[in-house]
Amino acid sequence: MAGKPRVGCEALRVVARCRPMSRREEAAGYERVLELDVKLGQVSIRNPRAAPGELPKTFTFDAVYDASSKQADLYDETVRPLIDSVLQGFNGTVFAYGQTGTGKTYTMQGAWAEPEKRGIIPSAFEHIFTHISRSQNQQYLVRASYLEIYQEEIRDLLAKDQNKKLELKENPETGVYIKDLSSFVTKNVKEIEHVMNLGSQTRSVGSTNMNEHSSRSHAIFLITIECSETGPDGEEHIRVGKLNLVDLAGSERQNKMGAQGERPKEASKINLSLSALGNVISALVDGRSTHIPYRDSKLTRLLQDSLGGNAKTIMVATLGPASHSYDESLSTLRFANRAKNIKNKPRVNEDPKDTLLREFQEEIVRLKAQLEKRGMLGKKRRRSSRRKKAMDGEGAVDNEGEDENEDGLEKNMENYLKEQKERLEEEKAAIQDDHSLVSEEKQKLLQEKEKMIEDLRKEQEATELLAIKYKAMESKLLIGGRTIVDHTNEQQKMLELRRQEIAEQKRREREMQQEMLLRDEETMELRETYTSLQQEVEIKTKKLKKLYAKLQAVKAEIQDQHDEYIRVRQDLEEAQNEQTRELKLKYLIIENFIPPEEKNKIMNRLYFDGDEDQWKFQPLVPTGGNSSQMKRRPTSAVGYKRPISQYARVAMARRSHPRFR
Ligand code: ADP
Ligand code: MG
After folding, report:
1. Average pLDDT over residues 257-271
2. Please, is 136 exposed, middle or buried when counting C-beta atoms within 10 Å of its C-beta (0-12, 13-18, 19+)?
3. How confident is the model at residue 104 (pLDDT cuts 50, 70, 90)?
4. pTM of the predicted model over 0.85
5. 318 lines ligand 1 (CB under 6 A)
6. Nearest to 108, CA basis, from 75, 151, 146, 68
7. Which pLDDT value is given to residue 387?
8. Is the CB of residue 251 below 6 angstroms from any atom belonging to ligand 1?
9. Has the keyword Signal been applied to this entry (predicted)?
10. Could you identify the atom of ligand 1 that is nearest to the CA of residue 99?
11. Among the atoms of ligand 1, which is closest to the Cα of residue 211?
12. Ligand nearest to the CA of 99
């Protein structure tokens, strides 16, 4: 780390949110097992099958949101500071984690139509563009991507070709990224909402059962914000903040057999990313692990920065209040409780290589220079004054003449074209009228003029295109008060500010309460002075009782964990048995039906591509060779052609067995 600026550690912020009882749950008469203490940030969960005397389990988080909480409460208190950081150039991530039907999508997206039910994503859109519109002396570029991970395959929800599976790549400078992921530069809330809706539509179109699909896939909305500003050193600096908004797959334990018609192998992939997420968190928190298994899944690789890395991260654990989801709720609470202990080292991304903003700026300068060379920008003033003079005669008022921005560009160009054309036409007419010229000579001169008019037209067309491109590019760079304007009035602004202050105050109060609670327990002992032996015995007995209850709770927790461990282990063993059985079948086929020399040939050519998690064939001919080269090798070409589909399947089977992974 030598030479790098020191960065502070920051824990993952974890909040819990409990949705209201659904009508179905109420009708079925389920009891409530969750109690939330909003002031203290605590959730208590009571086992509906508890033995008498068993205490509820209590978990403390950075904040908790009960059924009556508003979307804006969660946003202002918890998410707003993170988005502010992203606007300053930090990376940020918000996860929603929880069982299907507990409100992950409600929290992330919410109900679009009703403003007060809008979730984190639409609120972030508003927040980001309002911030930019109020900024000064800064240039912003905002772009968005939308993707989904389903059965360990990455799908670009904004791409034309939905069948294309995207690959993860790693760059030593910028970290893990998705190759060829499409992204759209957006200039305002409406545009980014459009991008979001486009992706959401794509997401639902491809699936026969949307509920099942969304409960098994991870959706990630990615916003990249680049900001350029002149620093105190007089140089221009660019900061880049990346925001991941993640609606995770349902955290419920998957049915071992998977959905109907699904082979076990497919079912085993469903929650691979989610269990890998759990493993990464455990390893990070463990403190003894030197290896963090980020590479085990697409999700954990992609969000490596957010877990123990340089990002600021929030996890919203969503819960159902009713007794029938007790097991899942408890497991969500435990998961969230573990995540609390992850430490990140957030850092501003200053002047990274290859920013789009820089590219845009350079392109704009280039286009501007070209336009100037073509006389478009430079000539403007002269021409508009000329135009004014010409129009004065008709008594027209020309406002555009004063206006020196690019809006007048197209108009100017039109006029310029007209003027030039008129001049040439005049000259043409003059030639025609000139009786001193011989007709041949006249014809030649006229043709020349015609050609000049045609060239002029072409030239103007090209310039027009350039100007359009220039305008389009410049409009994408957002400048507060100029290209993007804030329409909130003073009163609204005041209200907004007030709301933020309250949110901040609430947060501070809760932190203090939590701190006090902790300190209370620590200092009770020190403060106590006993007036009599009797009193000392009483107080110590009380304390003993308290500690005993705590001990029992911890013991119960250990037992629970142990049971869970055994269950998971049994699952794994079952999966392993199934795979071994499948492997045996494939072996039987290979050993009995494939000539050994063919088998050896293939084995020698197979290699494992860790990046793509696939077995692959080494090419027969060195890369860059073409098919004619292959034809020149008759024996291997024939041997290669026939059985390849068979072999490919063999390779697949080998891959699915843990021994080969
Ligand atoms: P998930 O995405 O976790 O599967 P959803 O977000 O689809 O769950 O929520 C399930 C249902 O519960 C939806 O009808 C949603 O409107 C409702 N819901 C979830 N959370 C809340 C909440 N905090 N307040 C009101 N309704 C909620
Ligand atoms: Mg959902």
Report:
1. 57
2. exposed
3. very high
4. no
5. yes
6. 75
7. 40
8. no
9. no
10. 3
11. 4
12. 1
